[in-house]
């Protein structure tokens, strides 16, 4: 179990109030030291194998975060050609970038081939087209759906039988025919069963399924197990025991490599595990509104900045950093969007006053990357704490940013 630190009023040693005074609110703040801690924990847990960690940049795609992970030795997991381009711009060697799109055209995949990244294909139709164009000249990884139900929410469960992701293990004969007829060189197998997986046995069961199909693929160089490691969100919450998983999975993997006939690389693509706990979202309380049944704390943000509670029903621990010693009272924290954008019902917080700063913990993953300009609201600034110093890594938006790509019709002027 993980205990939340009650001294939640500094980030990377810097007082939260100082950050809000300097950069304004709402504000995303990321502590690079926590990112590095999480990366090292994963590397150490799987040190018994030839392990490669690829940061899933869909979780947090600021180019400074990408550069940080490159500098500490990570590769990159991308799901769009735009993320590929971002990774190349950040300085990643294309050989250390894996591109795993879903439901994209062959034309987009061709753009990724031009960049020289590792291609990962998850459906037979595109794989056949890919093979017809490239034959055995461009190696490809194949994403397998093991039909293992896992994940904390149906929207982040990707390995079950009704998922749009991956090629079913029951389509192996069809897959084998396509590979043989088009002379495709498959150099990797990939799976990803979902996010927020707590049970170590889920990984092991899916791994065994993947190992069983390797007889169809004699030229493998790596096996990619995706990610899905759970991080703690609530006080006293549990997380995936990556150390225990590391011991069991590396042993199983090394035994498999002996059977396969040579040592392969073991790949993972963590996103949330690496950055979630590093991020804090800070918002100011605009109004305290009491109804006959509820006391609302309305903040200067909404689902346009942090949609996870509304979209995934996710929990983010909330702290009143402005009044830490206040009397504990119940509040429902809501946003300023013209929708029901509720961050948390009946949360016990230190007494909240108008103007107080609330901190939303574990906001580093899928926070800013899923933000929008809904209601024509500006997206917030982003700050990174690196070696005790705060750096502005994205400016707060202005009206010019919202209007930049709009074209006014002269006839209406």
Strand coverage percent? 15-25%
CATH architecture designation of the largest domain:
Alpha-Beta Barrel
**Shape call:** globular
State Rg. Answer: 23 Å
Class computed from helices, strands and strand pairing? alpha/beta
CATH fourth-tier homologous superfamily of the largest domain: Alanine racemase
Q: What is the total domain count?
A: 2
Query: Which fold does the CATH topology of the largest domain refer to?
Result: TIM Barrel
**C-alpha end-to-end distance:** 61 Å
**Biggest β-sheet, characterized?**
9 strands, mixed
| Low-confidence parts | 150-160
What is the mean pLDDT?
92
Please estimate the helix content.
25-40%
Number of helices: 12
Number of strands: 20
CATH class of the largest domain: Alpha Beta
């Amino acid at each position: 179990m993980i205990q939340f630190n009650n001294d939640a009023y500094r980030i990377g040693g810097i007082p939260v109030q100082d950050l809000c005074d300097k950069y304004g609110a709402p504000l995303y703040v990321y502590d690079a030291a926590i990112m590095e801690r999480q990366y090292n924990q994963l590397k150490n847990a799987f040190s018994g194998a030839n392990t490669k960690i690829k940061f899933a940049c869909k979780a947090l795609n600021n180019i400074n975060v990408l550069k940080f992970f490159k500098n500490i030795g990570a590769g990159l997991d991308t799901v769009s050609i735009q993320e590929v381009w971002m990774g190349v711009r950040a300085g990643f060697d294309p050989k250390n970038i894996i591109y795993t799109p879903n439901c994209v055209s062959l034309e987009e995949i061709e753009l990724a081939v031009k960049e020289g990244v590792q291609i990962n294909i998850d459906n037979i139709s595109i794989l056949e087209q890919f093979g017809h164009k490239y034959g055995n000249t461009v190696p490809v990884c194949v994403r397998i759906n093991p039909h293992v139900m896992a994940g904390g929410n149906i929207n982040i469960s990707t390995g079950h039988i009704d998922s749009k992701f991956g090629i079913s293990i029951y389509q192996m004969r069809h897959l084998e025919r396509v590979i043989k007829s088009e002379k495709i060189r498959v150099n990797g197998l990939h799976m990803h069963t979902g996010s927020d997986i707590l049970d170590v046995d889920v990984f092991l069961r899916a791994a065994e399924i993947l190992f069983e199909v390797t007889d169809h693929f004699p030229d493998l160089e790596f096996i990619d197990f995706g990610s899905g490691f759970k991080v703690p969100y609530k006080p006293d919450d549990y997380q995936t025991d990556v150390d225990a998983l590391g011991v069991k999975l590396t042993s199983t993997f090394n035994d498999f490599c002996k059977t396969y006939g040579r040592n392969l690389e073991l790949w993972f693509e963590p996103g949330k595990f690496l950055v979630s706990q590093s991020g804090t979202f800070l918002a100011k309380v605009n109004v305290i509104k009491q109804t006959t049944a509820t006391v609302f704390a309305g903040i200067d943000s909404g689902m346009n900045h942090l949609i996870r509670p509304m979209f995934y029903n996710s929990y983010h621990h909330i702290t009143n950093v402005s009044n830490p010693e206040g009397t504990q009272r119940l509040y429902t924290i809501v946003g300023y969007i013209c929708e029901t954008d509720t961050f948390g019902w009946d949360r016990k917080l230190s007494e909240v006053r108008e103007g107080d700063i609330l901190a939303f913990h574990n906001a580093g993953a899928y926070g800013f990357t899923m933000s929008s300009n809904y209601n024509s609201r500006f997206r917030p600034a982003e700050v990174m704490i690196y070696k005790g110093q705060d750096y502005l890594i994205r400016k707060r938006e202005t009206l010019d940013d919202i209007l930049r790509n709009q074209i006014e019709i002269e006839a209406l002027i």
